[in-house]
Q: What sequence folds into this?
């Protein structure tokens, strides 16, 4: 099954051709409007498969990219696979409708951009709601009842509505009791059937039928409602108060009972924020929560719906009692702007806990283990406007030596099984405000990337407050993800530091669990050393035989930002070191490119922290040929024969970069067979952009073939290019 190859070789000048593009469609389209004056529209049913193909011409072969906004790579589709210039979307959804762009680009001229609008057709289930009004007529002698049946649907294209009473189709102004209209300012498509001054015959079965006229074979849909003289909106009542306070571990049941509604409403419980907790059970209108946790707090909503009137809603705000984070503050005499405790001046001790519900917390004060005796000089303030909400303060007027001692603040939930929280404050001549400093030699910390770092600030004073750490030079969070971090020993421990953590850090005293005064602060610098980042990571260097080539490996960034050492290797073998290193790069000159000096050159640059490598591939190999895919009528059939010929055309990529191309090696293999026929095509003339041509004869109809083409210079074989050729009538 050999192929006879006859060397029929010609050439003409092509240079390059800009990209051209055309969109064709396949898949499950309903209608495609091919109107050249207006836009092209591809109509498809929701849930079907969209297939669009972008046919391109141009030389070199253009690259194709599909986007949903012209030229923007930011709106690439996650759900699509771009293969063989084909855009395919399985089970297309309505939000995926819109304008799709095919962009073909080959670096020649401007890119070719074609577009098509995809119109996704759908028809949802209609929703029917009933609203009733009763109004007095003629001085309250009698009442008139009016019913509005409101039918809403989402569809594309817009739906047509048909109203039926029983089997009878109703029309606008059919009689004085019926009116059909479209309300303003509604979402989706809506039609209202108005029954005026309700009559006995109006109590019947009503159907709203919606249709998109069978477009994309979408069938009509309908919904029916039975109107009776007992039709009524839902009504609810709750078995608990709208605000419910419980203890952790309790089991509770909230009952939401129907007190009205016809047809029978559906009762639904929901929770916000977030979903219903896992320890909840809904049975009809009853919601039970077992072993309640603090995180079960929130709003529980009971909703009853029967599509008559508005849904009935009841809400319970569930509060789970909790107390945490007991803190204290020592505030010296504010009027005298003092920052220290002094006899004869006023002093305020404050106590706060984070609690739910906050206002139910009861604070008690003790001095030296006994309940504090309140007097003209010892005052209690429950809500201090200068402090967090519901903070209890003990004010000592005109501090005396006898006021020194240990004060204890106890926070309690009375009548609840919640453990008390307490905090102790010692007031004496030794109680002094804090100072903060950085230990000697610790103001700048230098560590390597990936290692552990410890920043330290020393706090003196009694009591010692917590330390708040933050970043100074960057509006970025701390490694914990928060903007600040709290430590009690003054040390900020950072695990596995990264280069982004470099910068200035601020430590400052907290205004709680210590003096409520202006924070004291200090700065610590963190330097994170990391290996160099170099370019190029890889570079293919082509040059003619006997010519020189200079290789440069540049350090883009690193810490420290200086080349300490550089090592060059050729095919793994160490080379003699180049001259003294530059600040941020290393160079090597190959004086003469030959078979012996061709190969892999590797430059390893170190900054004493790590090593990064540039890789250069140096050779005199020719670049690959670039097949020309836009040959008109490339297939030549032979009459009364089962053979055909194929016109193969190509240009040579960058022929002047290396030595002249002497010939091409051509390999042809019939697909699904192993044996390959090889021949050589001599080259008489070569320049950039020259279109070369070779006719492949005696190919078997209708077989396809793989063709491989390799340029050959005095250096040897260059880069090979391959393509598949197919028989076409």
A:
């Amino acid at each position: 099954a050999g192929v006879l190859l006859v060397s029929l070789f010609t050439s003409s000048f092509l240079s390059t051709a800009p990209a051209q593009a055309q969109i064709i469609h396949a898949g499950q389209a309903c209608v495609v409007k091919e109107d050249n004056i207006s836009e092209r529209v591809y109509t498809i049913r929701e849930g079907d498969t969209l297939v669009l193909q972008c046919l391109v011409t141009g030389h070199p072969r253009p690259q194709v990219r599909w986007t949903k906004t012209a030229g923007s790579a930011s709106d690439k589709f996650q759900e699509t696979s771009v293969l063989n210039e084909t855009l395919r979307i399985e089970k297309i959804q309505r939000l995926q409708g819109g304008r799709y762009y095919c962009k073909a680009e080959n670096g020649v001229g401007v890119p070719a951009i074609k577009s098509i609008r995809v119109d996704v057709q759908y028809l949802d289930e209609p929703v029917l709601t009933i609203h009733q009004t009763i109004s007095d007529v003629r001085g309250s002698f009698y009442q008139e009842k009016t019913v509005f049946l409101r039918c809403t649907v989402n569809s594309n294209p817009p739906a047509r509505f048909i109203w039926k009473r029983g089997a009878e189709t109703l029309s606008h102004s059919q009689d004085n009791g019926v009116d059909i209209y479209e309300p303003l300012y509604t979402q989706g498509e809506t039609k209202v059937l108005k029954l005026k001054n309700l009559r006995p015959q109006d109590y019947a079965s009503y159907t709203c039928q919606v249709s998109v006229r069978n477009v994309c074979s979408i069938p009509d849909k309908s919904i029916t409602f039975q109107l009776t003289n007992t039709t009524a909106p839902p009504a609810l009542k709750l078995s608990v108060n709208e605000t419910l306070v419980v203890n952790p571990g309790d089991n509770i049941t909230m009952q939401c009972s129907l007190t009205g509604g016809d047809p029978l409403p559906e009762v639904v419980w929901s929770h916000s924020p977030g979903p219903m907790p896992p320890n909840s059970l809904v049975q009809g209108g009853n919601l039970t929560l077992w072993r309640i946790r603090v995180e079960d707090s929130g709003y529980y909503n009971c909703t009853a719906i029967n599509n008559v009137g508005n849904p009935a809603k009841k809400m319970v705000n569930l509060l789970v009692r909790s107390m945490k984070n007991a803190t204290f503050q020592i505030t010296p005499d504010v009027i005298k702007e003092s920052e220290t405790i002094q006899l004869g001046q006023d002093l305020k001790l404050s106590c706060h806990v984070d609690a739910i519900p906050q206002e139910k917390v009861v604070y008690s004060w003790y001095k030296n283990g006994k309940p504090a005796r309140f007097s003209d000089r010892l005052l209690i303030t429950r809500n201090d406007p200068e402090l967090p909400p519901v903070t209890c303060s003990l004010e000592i007027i005109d501090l005396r030596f006898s006021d020194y001692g240990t004060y204890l603040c106890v926070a309690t939930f009375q009548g609840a099984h919640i453990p008390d929280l307490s905090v102790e404050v010692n007031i004496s001549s030794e109680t002094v405000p804090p100072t903060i400093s950085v230990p000697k030699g610790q103001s700048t910390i230098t560590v390597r990337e990936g290692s552990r770092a410890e920043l330290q600030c020393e706090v003196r004073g009694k009591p010692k407050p917590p330390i708040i750490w933050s970043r100074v030079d960057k509006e970025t969070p701390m490694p914990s993800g928060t903007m600040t971090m709290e430590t009690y020993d003054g040390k900020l421990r950072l695990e596995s530091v990264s280069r982004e953590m470099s910068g200035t850090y601020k430590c400052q005293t907290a205004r709680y669990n210590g003096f409520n005064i202006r924070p004291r602060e200090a700065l610590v610098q963190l330097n994170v050393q990391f290996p160099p980042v170099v370019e190029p990571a890889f570079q293919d260097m082509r040059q003619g035989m006997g010519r020189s080539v200079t290789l440069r490996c540049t350090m883009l960034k690193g810490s420290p930002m200086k080349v300490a050492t550089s090592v060059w290797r050729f095919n793994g073998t160490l080379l003699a070191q180049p001259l003294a290193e530059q600040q941020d790069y290393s160079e090597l000159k190959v004086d003469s490119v030959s078979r012996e000096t061709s190969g892999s050159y590797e430059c390893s640059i170190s900054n004493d922290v790590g090593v990064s490598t540039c890789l250069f591939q140096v050779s005199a190999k020719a670049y690959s040929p670039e097949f020309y895919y836009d040959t008109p009528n490339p297939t030549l059939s032979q009459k009364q024969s089962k053979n055909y010929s194929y016109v193969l055309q190509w240009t040579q990529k960058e022929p002047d970069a290396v030595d002249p191309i002497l010939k091409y090696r051509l390999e042809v293999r019939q697909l699904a067979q192993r044996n390959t026929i090889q021949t050589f095509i001599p080259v008489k003339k070569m320049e950039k952009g020259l279109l070369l041509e070779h006719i492949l004869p005696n190919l078997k109809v209708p077989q396809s073939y793989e063709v491989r083409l390799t340029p050959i210079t005095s250096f040897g074989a260059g880069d090979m290019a391959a393509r598949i050729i197919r028989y076409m009538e």
